[in-house]
Structure formats: C-alpha cells, structure tokens
Amino acid sequence: MVVKTFMDMDQDSEDEKQQYLPLALHLASEFFLRNPNKDVRLLVACCLADIFRIYAPEAPYTSHDKLKDIFLFITRQLKGLEDTKSPQFNRYFYLLENLAWVKSYNICFELEDCNEIFIQLFRTLFSVINNSHNKKVQMHMLDLMSSIIMEGDGVTQELLDSILINLIPAHKNLNKQSFDLAKVLLKRTVQTIEACIANFFNQVLVLGRSSVSDLSEHVFDLIQELFAIDPHLLLSVMPQLEFKLKSNDGEERLAVVRLLAKLFGSKDSDLATQNRPLWQCFLGRFNDIHVPVRLESVKFASHCLMNHPDLAKDLTEYLKVRSHDPEEAIRHDVIVTIITAAKRDLALVNDQLLGFVRERTLDKRWRVRKEAMMGLAQLYKKYCLHGEAGKEAAEKVSWIKDKLLHIYYQNSIDDKLLVEKIFAQYLVPHNLETEERMKCLYYLYASLDPNAVKALNEMWKCQNMLRSHVRELLDLHKQPTSEANCSAMFGKLMTIAKNLPDPGKAQDFVKKFNQVLGDDEKLRSQLELLISPTCSCKQADVCVREIARKLANPKQPTNPFLEMVKFLLERIAPVHIDSEAISALVKLMNKSIEGTADDEEEGVSPDTAIRSGLELLKVLSFTHPTSFHSAETYESLLQCLRMEDDKVAEAAIQIFRNTGHKIETDLPQIRSTLIPILHQKAKRGTPHQAKQAVHCIHAIFTNKEVQLAQIFEPLSRSLNADVPEQLITPLVSLGHISMLAPDQFASPMKSVVANFIVKDLLMNDRSTGEKNGKLWSPDEEVSPEVLAKVQAIKLLVRWLLGMKNNQSKSANSTLRLLSAMLVSEGDLTEQKRISKSDMSRLRLAAGSAIMKLAQEPCYHEIITPEQFQLCALVINDECYQVRQIFAQKLHKALVKLLLPLEYMAIFALCAKDPVKERRAHARQCLLKNIGIRREYIKQNPMATEKLLSLLPEYVVPYMIHLLAHDPDFTRSQDVDQLRDIKECLWFMLEVLMTKNENNSHAFMKKMAENIKLTKDAQSPDESKTNEKLYTVCDVALCVINSKSALCNAESPKDPVLPVKFFTQPEKDFCNDKSYISEETRVLLLTGKPKPAGVLGAVNKPLSATGRKPYVRSAGAETGSNINVNSELNPSTGNRPREQSSETAETGVSENEENPVRIISVTPVKNIDPVKNKEINSDQSAQGNISSDRGKKRTVTAAGAENIQQKTDEKADESGPPAPSKPRRGRRPKSESQGNATKNDDINKPLSKGRKRAAVSQESPGGLEAGNAKAPKLQDPAKKAAPTERQIDLQS
C-alpha cells in the first residue's frame, strides 16, 4: 500500500508531501536498508526512488552519509534486473525507469565521495545487462549513466575504467551486451568524455604512468575499439601515437604498428586522409630496423589495398623496397599481400605491384619464388582462363603465362618442376575435357612469346627424355642380372634422380623404387603402360593412382618416398597429349584454315593460329609421334602442304618426317599424294622446305635411293650460276642428299663441286654489291648471289660430312678454300665487287664451316693450327652479328660435346669484345660448358679414359698457344699487349679457378710450366715464335700464382700436352728464364686495369697463315650501321699521344666499314699475288705467283672533320650499340707498339710470307684449289718491309 501511495503521488501535492515526510525518513532507516528480505528491499527501493521523484529537486534527506547509504542500497537492488523471468522484474524495471527519468543520482554530485556510488552503479548496470533485455532497459541504463557523465564535473579514472573495461576483448567476448552498452554510452557522451580519455592515454602513452589504471596494459586494444566506436573519441590521442611510432623500443613500435594497421586498414576508416602526418609516419615503419615491425607493416598492406584502393599509390613505393628486403619472410609476405588483394579484385593492384611479384619469381629463396609463381598462376587461371573480370583484366595479366614459362630456363630443378605443375594445373588444366583442353593449349601456344615457346618445347623435351630414361630402366629389368647390367642400371637411376627435387635424397628413393619394381611385376607392367606411346590421358591417370595406391602406407601419413615417386610419375605421365588430343588439335587447325574458328575472339589472327598450330604439332611430333598416325590427321597435314604460307608447309613436312614411318605400309593413299609434293618442295620450295623434304623422303620411304636420285639428277644438271636466285633451293637439296646418301651420291657430287660449286660459283663475282657502308644487312637485303655462295659452302661441308673420310683429299682442299675466304675477309676473288655486309656473311659461313667440319674426327685431325687460329679469330670479327652468331654456334656445339676441347679456348678471345653483353654471354657459355664437362665426367666412369678431350682444365694449353699466335701480339715485351693477353687468360682462368677441384690450380700451373719445356709445333725453329709462347706461359703463371694460394701444391698428375701444338720436351732442356720483367709483372697485377679496348682487325697477319697486305686510302667511304658514344672508349686517355703515327681513337661505330683515322705512313712495297691463277690438277708443285702490289699512299688529313662521330646520332637497326671499334673486332695497337714494331722490323725480312692460296682445278672435289687462295711461302729476298697493321685503314 505504501508503494502504491508513493507511486501515485506527484510533485505538486504539497500537503501529501508534508504528510508523508516522516514515512519517507522512516523508510531510510537501517531496518529497511538492511532488511534480510529481498522483496522488502525491492519495495523500499521503489519507494525511495519515488520519494526522490516527489521531493525533487530537494531530497528529504539532509545527511550526506544517509544519502550515500540510500543510493548504494538502491544500486544493489538494481542487480535484480539481471533475471528478466523473475516475477519481480517489472518492479526492478520500474525502479530503473524512475531513477533514469528523474536523474535521481545527480543528487550525489553534492557528496564528496559520490564517485564510489557512480562506480558501483556503472559496474552493476554493465554486469546485469544481457541479451534478454529489451531496448527500453538499455535505453534507461544509458539515460541514467549518460546523465551522470554529462552533468558531472568530470569523469574520474576509476569511473572511466568501469566503462572501458567492457571494451577489452576478453570482456567483450564474455558479455557482448555490456560491450554494446558501453559503445552506445561513449557515442552519446563523446563531447564530454573525450577529454577524460585523452588524459588517460596521455598519462600512459606519453608520461609512461601505467599505474594510473589497471587497464594500462590494454591501451592499444582500447584505442582500436574506441576508434571503431567513434574516431572523435581519439582526436587528442592520435598525435600521441605518432610519438610512440618513433619510440626506441622495438616491441613498443611493433604494438603501435599493429594497432595503427587495424585503424588504417578497417573498411570505413578515413584516418589516412584525416590525419596525413600520422599516415606518413606509419608508412615510415615499412623501413623500420626491427624485422617484426616491417613484417607487420607488410601484412597490413593487404587489408589496406582491399579496403582502401585509393591508398595503393602511397603503399606502392614502400612495398617495392620491401620486395627487396633482406628478410625472406618479408619478401614472402609482400607477395602474399599483393596476390591476396589481386585475387579479391584485380583493379585493387596496379601494374607496378604486379611487377614486384614478377621480380620475385627470380628470388634467391625457393619459398619466395614458389609463392610468387603460384600466386601469378592463380591470377592467370582466374582472369585469363575463366575470364572472371572481362577482357580488360585478362589483358592486364596476359604476360603471366610468358613469365611463368620463362622460369623454366632457371637451373634449379625445383623451379622446373613447379613450372610443369603450374602448366598442368593452371595454364592448361589437365582435368578439362579433351576438346576444351586442346583449345586452351592451341590458343595459349599461339599467344606465347618466342622465349616462352622455347621453354614450353624444352619442358616437353625434358619430360620425354625422362620417359625414355624410365623406359630404358624397365628394359634393363628384363635383361639377366650381370655386373654390366647393374652398372648401367645404377647410372640410369642417378640420371633419373637428377630430374627430381633434392637429387641427394632422391637417389635413395629412386633406388628403393627400383628395388620395388624388381620385386613387383604388376607394378612394372603399370609403369610400362604409363610410358608406352599408346597410353591415353585417361589411362595415365588410372596408372598413376594405381601405382600410388600400391606404394602408399596407411600407417605412415607423411611418406617422403611416395611423394618422390609421385613427382616422377607426374613428370612422365602423358596428362595432356594422346591420339584423341592430337585429333582435336588438328580439327582446331582445320577450323582456323576454313575461317570458322574463334581465333579473333581469342585475340589471335587466323594466320598466326594456323602457323602456331603447325609449330605446336611439329613439337609434339617429336615427343608423341605415335599419336599422329591416322588418315584424318595426315589429310589435314597434306592440306597444309598446299598452303601458300612457307612456314606452315615447312612444319607440315617436318611432322611427316617425324611421324610417317608407317605411312608406306598402312596408308598407301597418303603416300601416293605425298611423294610428288615432297619432290616439288625439294626442287622448287624454300631452302628450309627443301631440307625437310629430302630428310622426309629419306626417313619414311624404303625406296629412298630412287626417290632421291629423281631429285638429284635434274637438279645437278640444271645448276646455273647466272641465275643465283634459282640456285639456293637446289644447293640445299643437293647438299642434304649427298650427306644422307653418300655411298650413292658422293662421286657424282664431286664433279658438281669441282666444276660448278668452286669454279663457277665461289670463284666468280657476277654482280656488284651495294656499297652502303654497312657491315651487316637483314636477310631480305642480302644479294641472291651471296646467299647462293653461303649455301655452296654449306653444301661442301654436308658433302664431306656424308663421306666421313678424306681419301680423296677433298677435305684438305675445302679447308684451304675456307681459310682463303677468311684471309681475304670474305672477298675470295679480290675484285672488290662484293659489299661489306656480304663479306661478313661469307666470313661467318667460312668460319662456321670449319667449325662444323671439326666436329667430325677424321676432319678435325687435318685442320692445321693456322686454320684453327683463323677460325678462332672470327669471334673477334669487326661485325657484331658475325661475332654473335659464331659464338652461339660455337657454344651450341661445345655444349653437346661435339667439338674438340681446343675450340673452347676460342672463348678466351671474347675478353677483347667491346660489347659488355657479348663478354657476359661468353662467360655464361664458359660456365655452362665447364659445368657440363665436369658433370659428364662425374656421371660417366668411362670418361676418365678421355680426360684429355673432356677435362676443362686441359683447355689451358690450347688457350696459351692460341694467344701466342694472336695477330695483335707482335712484341713480347709490350706492356699493353701483355695486358691484353692477361685479360684473355683471366677471362678463361677465372671460370676454371672458381673451385679448386682435385687440386686443379696446381694442375694448370704445371701445364704452363711444362709448355715452357717444349717448343711451338707450328714453328719449332723460330725463336721469336717460341719466345712469344713462353711469354704467354709466364703471364699465365703470373695470373695463377696471384689468384690462388693453392697452386703451389703438388699437381695430382702430370699433364699431357697436345702434340699438334707442342713438340715433345727435349732431354736435359731446362727453361727457367722469366720472359716478363718484374716491373711488367707488377704492372700486370697491380696497375690500373686497362679499359675494355676496341677490337682490332682480325685480318692482321698470323705468323704462318699468309695474309696479303691490304690498304685503302682515306677517301674510302665511311658508313656505319651502329653509332656509339665516343666516351665509351676511354683508352685514349691512358697512353701518351704522340704526333707521329698513333691511331686516333675516336668514336667509331660498331659495324663501321672504314673508320677514318689521321695517320702518317711511310710508303712501302707490298706483294700482290696473281689473281685467279689456274693450275692444272696434275701439277705437283705450285709456282711462286707473287708480284708487287705497288706502294702505300700517305694518308692525308683530308676528311678529318669526319673523325668524330656524333654521339647523339641515331643508331642503325642492323646491330646493337657498342663501344667504338676498328675493323674485324680487334683492338688497335698502341702507338708505342706500332713504332717499336716498325723500328724493329723495318730492316729485316718477314719470317713467314703472306701466302696466297692458289686453288687448282681439283679443289675441293679433287681440285687442288682452283681459284681459291692457299697459303704459300714466298722468297724473303723479294719481300718489302713489313706493313704495320696498326696504321692500315682497314685495321
């Protein structure tokens, strides 16, 4: 009744208020406030709340202590709000509502210790709120608390803690409703409470007073939550965070970075734009010295990119730096960050960010490389293969396929295996249906760049090779056990292990797998089916799963052995290509031919699709020839043969050649149609088609002799040198026919060679070349006559390679002819009608021909040292393209172990190349060649018997001999020349001395010492020649001693020197003389390194090869196809200039025909060999056919204004820019060298005359050098003073 009375009373009832005042005071007595009955306490609390309402604004209680007791009592009763199902809940709600509406607690502001009451109230309300409460309860609680905060004088730290503690993650997870209540309360009171919050964080963050609050250790969690609630709560706190970011404590910086990462990265945050100084300070932590801080910064970038694309520009530069971070984990996380954002939406990442991932595909750490490669593969599949974001996105990442395949060029087997996995799962997913899979492959192949195509071809080649290794291993299992069989099997297992990850561990697993194969016949049969040519993709999948099931061990969840076997099976299983797949590819190509394919939609032109499709089929014809054997496939290929596109027809012929072994027996109709087409291509097709047609006939027909004869006879009769454009294809066909069927065509070809190839074609210049001054021209600009001469040289080589013997001495004549061509710089007739670019082509053809013949042992034996040296000097040719192509051919033959070891010495001359890229390429070639030879020796025990031809260190004597006969090395005491020799020696020795395997340093030193005990076999009686040889040996010893402290050890074995180049040491002969002075030795080792000089002329005289003196006046035209900055040639500043005869070292272009130089020359007599002198074949001796050439004219300074080449002149397209260089790619000799040479040699006869190679009518096909030039000694008495090569305008 009392409760009801107070509830019904209002503030206006003054009489009632006075009447019930005693009752009100009585209800506040201890009896009621401490009553044990819960319900009594509740009713009393309700009455007291009403009393405060009725008597407001003044309370009837005047004692502060009594007021405190009353409000603490009421606060305790509010705990009853917790149970919403209680019968008394409505009364509790009434109590709360009354208190909130009247703001009764505001009375407490007058009390000194009101804070205790408020803290208790806040804690009570936050503890009782739960999810069963409705919005009214929450609203009244908020009203009650917000009034206390907003109307009070301030919020104490304890009261603030009672609010903030609900934001801590631990409390937040326990009571989500209390968190929500605190969140809304803070939002409502932000203007009032912000200053209190700022003071709290200032105390903790800036002043470091963690004792001010129990929440000090949770400041960063609180800041994050407060920022999410309302950033305005932290307006004064953010500058304090900037201060903390610069703390000296790494862990503290890390905590702040973690916090700010969440603040900046949250989806709706605009903190970065609102607080730029803090943002910039935060970005600076990307470069923090503390690794975890950098790592945390990088991890943040992913969320930032996804939630705030507008900040990508700010992040890009910092991510670029971190993508090169020394810490692997940070580089890894940069990739994860970018890829994660790109997978969400490609528009979130710019091209620069994707470029960072691209760079990391070549990271030094496998984990980083793998992440980058897999990330890019996933992007390609999503946006290119599935086209999830349209054509624009697909175009943006279209480069990924090329880049991923380029990685197959890396040496690491892990990289190669991952590329194969990516290709099978992402580029061309193997689980697609055959038609869809082949369409994917068809258009992928058509859109790849040339290097990616090569990589993909190499991948299939490696997989096919591994299949063949496994096939050979299975064949060994079928043979009876023997020691030879076990040895062969071991070698095969080691080879297979090299093709798997971690070859060291793989060896043990492969041995175990081999043992399982030997014991389990069913497993062997499954493996045989897997690698059989007829295995389909579906069968391969079944076989792989079956083999894996048999090898699996249920008790062993992680089975490294099984994983390794799976790697092997994945590499050898034909998951993409089978007969059905080839058929699908052919149908796609037919649609492209008919114009009904989706070529344009796929971004490929029909012509490109057809050509690439044929190239793809051509590659697959090597690896899966059996899959092509169907009439439908061959009919389509015949259709391609009739197309006008030469490349398409050529590829089709090659496919027939690779796959058509059963055409004659199984498909007679195809055979009858194919034969006339092949004949036509061999006679009138392009050179490449002719070659393939001849090889195709030889490969697939049983009556090949008849077929080839039907081509040979009409072609050999119709050769006409007057129509050179019609000669090229016949020469190609005849050359390949004579190589493939030497028994049948060697003799008929001999007369063709003697009467037509040499006499009519090579020894005649019927047309005059274009004098454009260029040293190289594109293929389409080369004259037909020169193309015919190049093919004629190739025909000679193919004819000899077919015979493989030198019984008729044709090889000797051919080698003399080729040497004469090199001596004459490509102008064999010396009529000066041929252009410089055409001469370059012929020099390249001659040098390549000698190198090709050297690959056949019977011809290698007859190649003289002089001819070898001429061939070697092609790598220093004046024309950049000649040097480049020759070096590539040399490397290709050496890598396949086709060329003798002495040819590797040629790479030492590359130290003289003025183009940095060429030198770098040569060094890489050396590294690969040396590595391959050492690996071959390790893998093949029998190779130890051939160490002289395999061991890389044995290249040293060949190199020393070659450098001793370098035309630029004329004076054995000239420091500049010796520096050149030292650079060449070190170019080779640096690679050889990388490791001291088997005490190789001492072995090389021993070789150089032993050479000093011999004589030069090329000129054993010439003291000057031997002196130069010994000088080079001393330079080599000087280099070896200075670079290795291990060279003084005992050599493991006594080296064997090649007798072709060195005589046997004489008994009791001791040569302990030092051929370089101590001063020279110091200059070579400690003096400033000589700048990479400009290559000089290869046409300087070899000591025994015979070269005619040749000079042109200054009036000769000066043209260039590559212009260079003269500053690139710093050699001019290293030696004192004198006015007499020094060659002016100015800017000269890479392939300049006649670099103009101001020189002064003393007129001297020269020898002019008689041109085109024919000698009968029965003559046993050659006459002396020399005559005076006349005198050199003094070169005036006319045209000197043309010496300086403008450095900003645009380079011609025919060659890359390079430092200045004179003719034939060799350095010019210094003035001191030139003057000294002149003074020493002017009054003495030349020891070895410059001989002309006169060719008799039997050379090379029985000719003794018809009109070619052969070396011939001349009478020293008839010679004029020698010509200084360094002052020749052609130098």
TrEMBL record:
Keywords: Cell cycle, Cell division, Mitosis, Nucleus, Repeat. Residues 1118-1134, 1177-1187 have a biased composition (Polar residues). Residues 1275-1291 have a biased composition (Basic and acidic residues). Residues 1113-1291 are annotated as: Disordered. Pfam families: PDS5. SUPFAM superfamilies: ARM repeat. Belongs to the PDS5 family. This is Sister chromatid cohesion protein PDS5 homolog A. It comes from Muntiacus muntjak (Barking deer).
